[in-house]
Every structure is written in structure tokens, then in C-alpha cells.
Design goal:
about 450 residues, alpha/beta, Rossmann fold, Nucleotidyltransferase, domain 5, 2 domains, ten-stranded mixed β-sheet, elongated
Length: about 450
């Protein structure tokens, strides 16, 4: 007797996602809700149809092949139904003849690679990684002669500035930014005329208003969160702790599913999170003085130029961090070099030095000059590869957890004021040096070049 294989969704939003009649169903809105697994399950309802085929898109091929990503999950699921998994082409062939493919739309024009294609099932994993143009263009490829009407399924995490936020507006509370529970899974219909989308509660309402030349498409949104994924919570309870440890903005998005939250002043740093201390603890493991240089004096034409800043951060044996000192100046390149050299002498050879390299060949030459200037000290040149907000998130999370202390000093007020106004303030040199020092201490963040 052949073994009976049971594959199905978890009760709750995942089941709702797999049973909706919508032409377009969007699932998720938080991390850990079982979104990708639901997306992989969806086309299996048609796997015995030899004419059926589908494509699941991610923005890049790297994301598909990532450890524990779509391809790994598909490998754990589809072979149970006898699928032939072709890793070189990311194609799946089922014994009845049906097919699935995993592909990318890395560039805006990648959609044109699919001209002439007929794809009964189109999936978008993390729809907020795709542009509005890419999504609506691929709807033109969503057609079928398999007997299965073309349909689209997508997963997402919240993004307040993405086009999808407005597209899902009816399902989201505009004041709180959280999904409206009572509207989960409810169908609405839209037509797109020129560049405008018109919504209604029924297809007849749209046909009455715009005529039959604009066939309506049905849409629904089904939010989920880690609390809906009982299997994950049971197998990996530490994942919830990981989400709780995120900086506030990411935590509200990925744990709470908030569609309104965005980076703003006070979201990353608050002085109440960073206790002041009167003296340095004795259990210091490492010290880093991190520099972000500007080397510009105020002039009549530029009365408020950027600062050169050097922040000293210590890591304690207890696991806490201490901002020990900040030195700042707006002066000529030569004066800034003297400041760096004198500060290094005061800090001593035990204090590591981090130097942020500006982009371009001029930045490389400037970094080389600084290393020569500080010969004899432990100097590391860091070339940031991420934006300022991304680089600030790890230390922001530690600050919110009260794991970053600040030694009392005359520089405190300027330091706190800048941090609390980040990312909206004009100057962010102290934020950059705090992020850089923290990332160098924990060995994460900016890529570290060889000492020159």
C-alpha cells in the first residue's frame, strides 16, 4: 500500500490565504507568519494538471538561493510529491507534467524577458521588493490555456513608503497603521484606467461606472504574524526573541505588522535609553576611537559645515558598552590631522582607531594618508557599504535595551541632541561615529579593509 502524504496549511491566516477566491491575494504584513510556505503550497492544488505551470519571483536569484530561502523550502516540500528539482535552472517538474519555476526580476526591464509568456500562476515573494511597474506588467503575462484561470499570490512585509501601502489602504487603519482585523480576507475589486486605480465593493459597481471594456480584478489582503505560526513558535521559540531585539522601527514593522511606521526623529535614539555614569568601570575589554572627518571651517558662505568627529566607545566584560568621550571640530585638513594625532596620543596604544573611508579614489588616498599619520597605532579603515540608517540599527537596539552607557562630560548635550534628532537633523557625524565604533567592536556592519 502506497504511503499517504498529507500536506496542508496551518489553521488561521494560512488557510484563509489558500482558500480565497481572489484574483490577487496578498499575504503577510509581519515576519514569521508562514508566508513563504503558504506561497509554495498554493500551486500544489493544480500539480496533477499536466498543462499547469507557475512562476514564483523574488527580486534577485541570490534571495531565492539563500540558506533557508525559497529553494531550500521547496526542496523540503515538492519532492514529497515526486518532483524533479533542477537546481541549475531553479525548475521543478512534477510527474503528471505540471511545472514550477523560480526566477528573478532584478532589474526594472527584466519583465521584458517574459514577453509572450503564459503563466497561470504568478507568485511574488516579498512584493515590497518589486516596483509597481513590474507587478502590473506581469499581470499581462498572467493568462492560461490549462483550464486554471490566471491568478496571483504575493507575500509581503510592511513598508510605509512603498506603492503597496496605498494599494492596500482599505485593509489598513490609517491612524494606527495596523491591519483592520475585520477586513482580513474580504474581497474588493478594482480597475486600472491609465495610471489611476478605481476601487469598489463589487464588480457590478465598477462595470456600471466604467463599462465592460474594463474587466475588474478582485483583491484581498490577509495579514499574519509570528503568533499565527504555531509550528515556528514551537520549533524555534528563540525567533520571537530575535524579533523583540530589533530596533524599534523594524520591530514595529516585522513583529507588529505596522504599515505606517518609518524612520523619524526619536525612533532610533533617546537619551533616556542611555544612562549617565560618573566614572569608567574597571572591566573594559576593548576601546575604539572612531573618526568621521569633514575638515571644513565655517565661512561666510557656509556658516554651518559638517563636523569632524572622533567618538571613543568601550566594550565591558559585562556585555555593556560605554560612550567614553567625543571630540569634535570644524577646521582645516591640517588642523584635523593634528587633532587626530594628539587624541591618539592621549588615548594610548591600547585604543583601536577606526577611520571611515569616503567613496571614490580621493577617499582611498585620504584614508591612506590617515593611516600613515597614525603609524604605530592599531588603525582599521572601514568602507561602509550600507546607508546610515541601516548602519545605526544595531547600536540603536542596544541603546533601547539600556546596554549603552554614557560617561558624564561637557560633550553630552550635543551628543544626545544629535542622536535624538537622527535621521532628520542636518548633522549626523556623532551618529556615524557611534555606529562605526559599535560595528567595529562587534565585528559587524561596515566591511573592514586591510590595514594599509
Amino acid at each position: 500500500m502506497s504511503e499517504i502524504i498529507q500536506i496542508g496549511p496551518q489553521e488561521g491566516p494560512q488557510t484563509d490565504f489558500l482558500t480565497t477566491r481572489a484574483d490577487i491575494a496578498i499575504y503577510g504584513g509581519a515576519a514569521g507568519g508562514g508566508k513563504s510556505y503558504g506561497l509554495l503550497l498554493e500551486p500544489l492544488r493544480h500539480y496533477q494538471n499536466p498543462l499547469f505551470g507557475g512562476v514564483i519571483f523574488r527580486r534577485s536569484t541570490v534571495q531565492i538561493r539563500n540558506e533557508g530561502g525559497l529553494w531550500d523550502e521547496a526542496n523540503a516540500l515538492y519532492p514529497k510529491l515526486g518532483a524533479d528539482m533542477r537546481e541549475s535552472t531553479l525548475e521543478v517538474n512534477f510527474p503528471p507534467g505540471s511545472r514550477m519555476k523560480f526566477s528573478h526580476l532584478e532589474h526594472e526591464r527584466s519583465v521584458y524577458d517574459w514577453q509572450g509568456a503564459q503563466i497561470p500562476f504568478i507568485g511574488f515573494d516579498e512584493l515590497t521588493h518589486f516596483s509597481e511597474f513590474q507587478f502590473f506588467y506581469m499581470l499581462s503575462r498572467n493568462r492560461s490555456t490549462s483550464g486554471v484561470p490566471g491568478y496571483v499570490r504575493a507575500t509581503c512585509n510592511p513598508d510605509a513608503d512603498h506603492w503597496l501601502r496605498q494599494f492596500l489602504d482599505w485593509w489598513i487603519d490609517n491612524d494606527s497603521g495596523y491591519p483592520i482585523k475585520e477586513r482580513s480576507g474580504i474581497l474588493r475589486w478594482f480597475v486600472r484606467i491609465e495610471d489611476s486605480i478605481h476601487w469598489a465593493d463589487s464588480p457590478d459597481e465598477l462595470k456600471k461606472k466604467f463599462g465592460d471594456q474594463y474587466p475588474p480584478k478582485s483583491v484581498t489582503f490577509i495579514p499574519s504574524s509570528i503568533h499565527d505560526n504555531k509550528i515556528l513558535m514551537s520549533k524555534d521559540p528563540a525567533y520571537y526573541a530575535n524579533l523583540m531585539a530589533l530596533p524599534r522601527v523594524e520591530r514595529m514593522r516585522l513583529l507588529g505588522g505596522n504599515w505606517n511606521v518609518r524612520a523619524s526623529a526619536g525612533m532610533f535614539f533617546q537619551r533616556a535609553w542611555m544612562p549617565l555614569i560618573d566614572a569608567m568601570p574597571a572591566d573594559v575589554l576593548r576601546r575604539v576611537r572612531y573618526w568621521d572627518r569633514a575638515a571644513t571651517k565655517p565661512t561666510a558662505e557656509n556658516k554651518d559645515p559638517d563636523w569632524s568627529s572622533g567618538l571613543k566607545l568601550c566594550r565591558l566584560k559585562s556585555g555593556l558598552f560605554v560612550v567614553e568621550h567625543v571630540v569634535r571640530d570644524r577646521n582645516t585638513p591640517l588642523a584635523i590631522e593634528r587633532l587626530m594625532k594628539n587624541t591618539a596620543a592621549q588615548d594610548g596604544f591600547a585604543t583601536e582607531i577606526g577611520i571611515e573611508q569616503d567613496p571614490g579614489s580621493a577617499g582611498v588616498a585620504d584614508a591612506q594618508n590617515c593611516v600613515r599619520l597614525l603609524a604605530g597605532y592599531n588603525v582599521r579603515v572601514n568602507k561602509p557599504t550600507q546607508d546610515k540608517i541601516t548602519r545605526a540599527k544595531p547600536v540603536s537596539a542596544q541603546c533601547e535595551a539600556n546596554n549603552v552607557l554614557v560617561l558624564k562630560g561637557p560633550w553630552n548635550e550635543d551628543f544626545f541632541r544629535e542622536l535624538e534628532n537622527f535621521p532628520e537633523a542636518k548633522h549626523d557625524d556623532q551618529v556615524d561615529t557611534l555606529s562605526g565604533a559599535f560595528n567595529q567592536l562587534v565585528g559587524d556592519g561596515a566591511s573592514i579593509l586591510d590595514v594599509l
